Amino acid sequence: MQSYEHILLAVDYSQESSSLIEKAQVMVERFQAKLSVIHVIDAIPMPDTSYGTVIDVNQEVDDPLLAAEQMKFKELCQQLQINPAEQWLVWGIPATEIINVAKHVQADVVLIGYRHHHGLAALFGNNAAEVMRHVQCDVWTVTLR
Amino acid sequence: MQSYEHILLAVDYSQESSSLIEKAQVMVERFQAKLSVIHVIDAIPMPDTSYGTVIDVNQEVDDPLLAAEQMKFKELCQQLQINPAEQWLVWGIPATEIINVAKHVQADVVLIGYRHHHGLAALFGNNAAEVMRHVQCDVWTVTLR
To answer: Do residues A82 and A13 touch, judged by C-beta distance below 8 A?
Structure first.
C-alpha cells in the first residue's frame, strides 16, 4: 500500500502557522516520514545576488532583514529537528520555489497552510492553490485560523 | 497534539481514483480515523425530486443510470467497510455538496483527487480547488495519474 515517505512543509512565520507546524509533527510521527522544510522570502529585496536563491542559513549576511529570516528559520528547524540538508530557505516567488524544491527533493506531499481571508492576508491561500495546480506530488492544506 | 479523527473521502469512479482510495485506506489506518465517503452525481438529471438530494443507496429507483450509481457506490463502500451512516450518495454540484457534507459530519479533513489535465478532464481538479476555497476543515489532495 502506497504511503508517504517524504513531506515538504512550507511555512511562513505567522502566528496561525503553529497549527500547521503541529500537524506536520503529527504527520511525521504517523507516517514515519522524512520532513523537509521550506520558507520562501519574498517580502525583502534580494540584497546580494552572490547568495543565489537558496540561502545558506549559516552564511553570515550583512542585511539585517535577511539575518532575521535566517535566525527565525534556524529556530524553526531546530524545533522540528530538521537536518541541514532538508532545510530550504529560499528567495523568490513562493509557489514557484515550493514547486521547484518539492520536485528537487522528490517529496511525496507538500504540506501548506491555507487562509480563508481576503485581500493581502489571502496570499498564503493563493500560494496553496497555485502549488496544487502545478506540483506533481500530493498537496495537503491545513486551514489556518 | 492535534490529529485527525474523521476523514471525508470524495470520490468519482475514474480509473485513476484507485490511488486516492488506497491513500484513504492508509490515512484511516495511520490516524485510526473514521472514514465517511461522498460521491456527488452531477452527470445525470435528477430523475425524481422525491428522492431529495441525498440518495438512499438501498432505495429502489426506476432510473437505470441512478441505479448504476447506487450499485457502484455500494460496492465502493463495501470495499472500504463504510457504515451506512457514513455513506453519502448525493445529487448536486460536487464542490457545494462536498462542503455541505463536510460541515454536516464535522469532518477534520476532506480527501479529494486532483487532476492536472485541462478541459473537461480537469473538472475534478477544479472541484478540489473549489472545496479548498470554501470548506472550513483541512483539505488533502491526491494527484491522480
So the answer is: no
Amino acid at B124: F
Task: For residue A20, give every residue at least 6 positions away whose Cβ sits within 8 Å of its Cβ, in sequence order, or none.
Answer: A9, A11, A111, A112, A113, A142, A144
How far is residue B114's CA from residue A135's CA, in Å, rounded to a whole number? 11
Mutation site for A-interface testing, chosen from B116, B141, B144 by largest number of A Cβ within 10 Å: B141
The DSSP code sequence of A53-89 is: SBPPTTS--S-HHHHHHHHHHHHHHHHTT--GGGEEE
- Its ipTM equals 0.86
- A-interface mutation test, from B124, B137, B143, B145, most A Cβ less than 10 A away: B143
pTM of the model: 0.90
A15-60 per-position pLDDT tens digit: 778 889 999 999 999 999 999 999 999 877 765 555 558 888 888 8
Q: How many CB atoms lie within 10 A of CB B44?
A: 13
- Amino acid at residue number B98: I
Give the number of other Cβ atoms within 10 Å of residue B118's Cβ.
8
pLDDT in tens, B49-95: 555 588 888 888 888 888 999 999 999 999 999 999 999 999 888 99
Third-level CATH fold of B6-143: Rossmann fold (3.40.50)
